Amino acid sequence: MLNIIIAIVAVILLTIGIVWVIDKFVPKKAKPFITIALWLLIVFLGYKTFMSVYGEIQFNQLKEKRYNQVIKNLIDIRNAQVAHKVITGKFTDNFDDLVKFIDTAEYTITQRRDSTVLDVERTKLFGGVETFKTLVLVDTLDFVSVKDSLFKTSTRYKTMMNVPVGAEGAKFELKAGMLDSIPVFEASVRKEVVLFDQEKYLIKKEEQVVSVDGVNGPTIKVGSMDEVNTTGNWPKNFSKEQ
Asked: Considering the entire predicted model, what is its pTM?
């Protein structure tokens, strides 16, 4: 973008220079037509310069608005996957299974407590001298619905697999597997899908972002298949909830 602006400004300055040269050396009869044409060119190039800058500002505003909507869904997917792992010990790569899990699964609320009891074997071993041992007991207190815990009365989890903005009908890609015997997952969507109706050169530029306050890379994602984490690749300015 900077190169384009510099080029346009250079052309404008060159045109102004040409106007000056014409004013000095071109016959008077031809001057009005040429001068008007060149000034029209200057106005046109000035307009293009303004629109190139303003267009990028509009793109960034639209991008942030769409990214925030996408991130809300990714956070729901992440929370559902974490619950799935807590209860089943693994993540899933199937949205239908994840929705079914939310509809039916329950957290078990437990309480751990220590209890001291007579150690019969050691008591016999020590000739009747009473010896005690400590046991850790786990009591089941209650069961809590995963759906109520994560989404309360909302049914948005049933559509969390749909990309809420961008190309019509787009869905998040969901992967799950094992990395060094540890469960991992990744949910993602390409930026070009979210920004499908924008200028191609702006989308390409956005896909190459490497910044502490931007969404780095060509995708918006949560989790990773290459490292053990359940975080998103967006900075805090896009979403307060991490």
From this structure: 0.71
